[in-house]
Specification:
The protein is α+β, with helices and mostly antiparallel strands. The protein is 32% helix and 26% strand. The chain is built from four helices and ten strands; from the N terminus they run αβββαββαβββββα. The protein has a five-stranded antiparallel β-sheet with strand order 6-3-5-4-10. It has a three-stranded antiparallel β-sheet with strand order 1-2-7, covered by helices on one side. The chain has a two-stranded antiparallel sheet with strand order 8-9. Strand 4 (56-59) and strand 5 (65-70) form a beta hairpin. Helix 2 crosses helix 4 (125-141) and helix 3 crosses helix 4 (125-141). It is globular, with a radius of gyration of 15 Å.
């Protein structure tokens, strides 16, 4: 655990050790957006297709649940409102996020789907909001997922 805590701290993340593992303490610089089910799959595909992927934590359980670590919440009130309306959970303002290898439940531990060293950055929350908007729009129109790049 100590090596993981040191690695997370070197990234500038505020972390705390708990009885089950390591917890990221969210703030204005590092927050999390949790999406689940088909939306989680669509969001990750969109981000990958547009080279916007950042660190993603997979939460164990029957339904796919992913937490995307993000930044840029200060000026993103509309994006945050849209994410919440779409069913996403927003972790910020001191909320804790279990970081791998934290034991979540009997089903298992949090795992990196995209580890911090594999990601080129912490994407802005508006990138996740765009991915959610794309997924919801695609579902309404029946279109396939596409990149926004030219």
């Amino acid at each position: 655990m100590t090596a993981a805590v040191e690695d997370y701290s070197r990234r500038g993340w505020t972390v705390a050790e708990t009885a089950n593992g390591i917890c990221l303490i969210t703030d204005e610089d590092v927050s999390g957006i949790e999406v689940s089910g088909e939306l989680a799959r669509d969001v990750r595909r969109f981000l990958r297709a547009n080279d916007l992927s950042g660190p993603v934590i997979e939460i164990p359980g029957e339904e796919r649940r992913e937490i995307h670590l993000v930044t840029g919440l200060r000026k993103a009130a509309m994006a945050l409102d849209a994410l919440r309306e779409a069913g996403a959970t927003v972790y910020t303002d001191g909320a804790g996020i279990a970081l791998p290898p934290t034991q979540i439940c009997a089903a298992g531990a949090a795992e990196w789907r995209v580890a911090p060293h594999e990601a080129r950055w912490l994407p802005p929350v508006v990138a996740i909001a765009a991915a959610v908007r794309s997924s919801l729009s695609r579902r309404r129109t029946g279109e396939s997922l596409t990149s926004v790049a030219c």
